Amino acid sequence: MNAASFPILITGAGQRVGLYCTERLLDAQQPVIISYRQERESIAHLRERGAIALQADFSDEAGILAFIDQLKGHCSGLRAIVHNASQWLAETPGEEVDVFRQLFTVHMLAPYLINLHCSDLLLQSEQADIVHVSDDVVRKGSANRPAYCASKAGLESLTLSFAARLAPRIKVNTIAPALLMFNEDDDEAYRTKALAKSALGIEPGPQAFYQSLRYVLDTPYITGTTLTLNGGRHLK
Ligand SMILES: NC(=O)c1ccc[n+]([C@@H]2O[C@H](COP(=O)([O-])OP(=O)(O)OC[C@H]3O[C@@H](n4cnc5c(N)ncnc54)[C@H](OP(=O)(O)O)[C@@H]3O)[C@@H](O)[C@H]2O)c1
Q1: Helix (H, G, I), strand (E, B), or coil: what is residue 35?
Q2: Is the CB of 114 within 6 Å of ligand 1?
């Protein structure tokens, strides 16, 4: 990456993995545009560091299209799009349809529409990538969160279709992490159980994701693939 490149768009970068990646890309002099829903101190900090931060809610088609319009007013090209925004929702009895719709919209409809409407921005860049952030749970399904799992599986399918459609100018790949970092309210029992699910047994942190992102962005010969980042969960 060099200072002259077009910005990388990372969605949902106000906290955790997206925030970490934005900071590291800015460290590397890579311009970044982020989307966020909630104003936080981190957003002001990223703005001070030179990131463009656009408020966006991908809960419905109108919010997604409004974001695309806003984005086009802020850049004439993009180096990459990282579809990181996500909701880790479980279905609650009586709310299944609403939860399914929310997950479908943030994990599939938003990436789908942004890819369709912003591929022209990516085509301005000599190197161009779309990165879909999925979840290792897609490999085996989820008894507790079938809607979350299905919407991430749909996102992985979009990787195959967009990779075929946009080759050879735009590479399209998935990164599928298992546990990267716990949520603050995860209790000890949950943490112990989650760590025991992988062969490596660690909480790798967002830096492991950033390494994967760099690999995907910097490697010219991969498209339509899923990079698994799961500490050997498939071995247990
Ligand atoms: N963390 C892990 O251990 C782990 C494990 C497996 C997969 N992943 C995947 O890795 C990615 C990053 O994980 P994370 O834990 O850092 O994610 P996260 O904090 O749960 O979510 C990232 C951001 O998505 C934004 N977002 C949620 N719904 C949105 C909507 N409707 N419209 C616009 N933005 C929305 C939120 O913005 P606001 O905060 O501004 O509301 C949030 O900050 C996600 O795609 C996740 O599925 C993470």
Answers
A1: strand
A2: no
- The pLDDT tens digits for 104-117 are 999 999 999 999 99
Given a cut of 70, whether residue 3 has pLDDT beyond it is no
- Contact in structure between 173 and 226 (CB atoms under 8 Å): yes
CA of 85 to the centre of ligand 1 (A): 5
Q: Rounded to whole angstroms, how far apart are CA atoms 198 and 80?
A: 31
The single-letter code of the amino acid at 96 is E
Cα angle, residue 236 at apex, residues 204 and 100 outer, rounded to 5°: 70
Is 148 considered catalytic here? yes
Ligand 1 pocket member 46 (CB < 6 A): no
The single residue listed with the structure tokens 């479908």 is: 104
Q: Which residues have CB under 8 Å from 191's CB, separation 6+? A: 182, 203
